[in-house]
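Ticket #493: bound-state structure for NAI.
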Amino acid sequence: MKSYEHLYIDGHWVKPVLGGTFPTIDPSNETLLAQVAAATAADIDLAVKAARKAFDEGPWPQTTGAQRAVVLRRIAAGIRERLDTLAALEVQDNGKPFPEAQWDIGDTAGCFDFYADLAEGLDTRQEQTVPLADERFSCIARKEPMGVAGAIIPWNFPMLMAAWKVAPALAAGCCMVLKPSELTPLTALELANIAHEAGLPAGVLNVVTGLGPDAGAPLSEHPGIDKLAFTGSVPTGAKIMQAAARDIKNISLELGGKSPFIIFDDSDIEAAVEWIMFGIFWNQGEVCSATSRVLVQRGLYEPLLKRLVEETRTLSIGHGMKEGVLLGPLVNSTQYDKILQAVARGQEEGATLLYGGTRPADCNIGYFLTPAIFADVPVNSWIWNEEIFGPVVCVRPFDDEAEALKSANDSRFGLAAAVMSKDLVRAERVARRLRAGIVWVNCSQPTFTEAPWGGYKQSGIGRELGEWGLNNYLETKQITRYDSDQPWGWYIK
Ligand code: NAI
Ligand code: MG
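RESOLUTION: The complex was predicted; output attached.
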């Protein structure tokens, strides 16, 4: 078994100060995968100080974007060289099917390449002249790295979620302390290895594994951090926000969702079934943007449910490395129990369980679950309103557009939404009225590094990816110069 008992701080692999470890398990067989270094406040302090030193003393923040791009592209290449190994590690730690893990790791490399291009672009776009009405002055607005960033990430796309924060932060010239989820910490440690080999200077990226309260909380509270970037649950997001409030840290939060999918009755039934399934069963439904609330127009409701159940029955569930598997195990026992409870609760609340929500007959071990379909879900029920974060879809009928929109927008979340109709004018109209940061038309879930990602309402603050992601890690400074040869003449005439 490879050792993961060290933290990556200031360019070195070091044991935690208190010497602790925590286990990460393989959710397909519930066995120990590795003992992992458990950071505590003392390690976080060392990591933040290393990042602080790398930022304050340079040279990373003063390098050109083109110089940073060279390192970012080497990281991308290092990830691609090990794509299958990293994907297999992700399968072991998270459970997801291997082809999905390969997709994630490819996307992870792509994210570093994308931000390499943006780093280069910064060299010519970093400064802009600001015309001033008073001609005695000249002014430029200049983008500068924000400082030391702390990133706290979840377990559903372990390496990709690291890249969404590390790549733009490094491209901007920031230094960073990254804390992966304790459920899936291994690929973040591999990323540290790859960044080290790519020649990233010591202290620019530090990777500290540990539990939320022991390592995440001290990171969010540390006065040496200028910016916090978080993806995860709403309650933890609120704690991060409170910690940030103490010394006014800049924050970006990507939190949960209960995203609606409106399907009009002119839709192609096969396309609707496929996108509903991709929208909630992909990655075992452990997806923040999953379209978990489906609204189907009355005329299509019964036939669509019938086809949805037929297709869902055929989904192959099993070990992520097994050929043809489309659903792996859920990430751990807590998530597994939470979802079993949600299924029970839905039934108590009067929703009709059409299929699934149980342990598959041939699986005695591992957190495997048959994907669940609930129909006629009451609007006031817990399962209609709260994030389940598993392969559980809730379906309801609707009669007209206004009713569908009202129901879709009636949520405290606003991460994503989807609409399907052959009438593109109607689809566009609905897309504009949906209160969500990401709206898919005639599809659900495809995600692009170039496009803004983030939520309305309680689904978060700020946007990641694209140029928005880079701006998360940039401050804007004005430099104003007095150019006149005449005295100012306010006090001294
Ligand atoms: P979580 O939000 O508690 O964990 C996410 C990250 O925050 C992890 O790295 C964790 O160590 C860290 N963390 C936990 N407590 C912290 C604290 N007090 N201070 C700083 N960092 C802390 O989510 P968890 O427990 O893994 O999952 C619970 C639920 O959250 C899921 O059932 C799901 O509904 C939701 N979730 C949403 C995600 C999303 O992408 N929006 C991702 C993961 C979970
Ligand atoms: Mg694990």
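RESOLUTION NOTES: Residues 98-125 form the longest helix (28 residues).
TICKET STATUS: resolved
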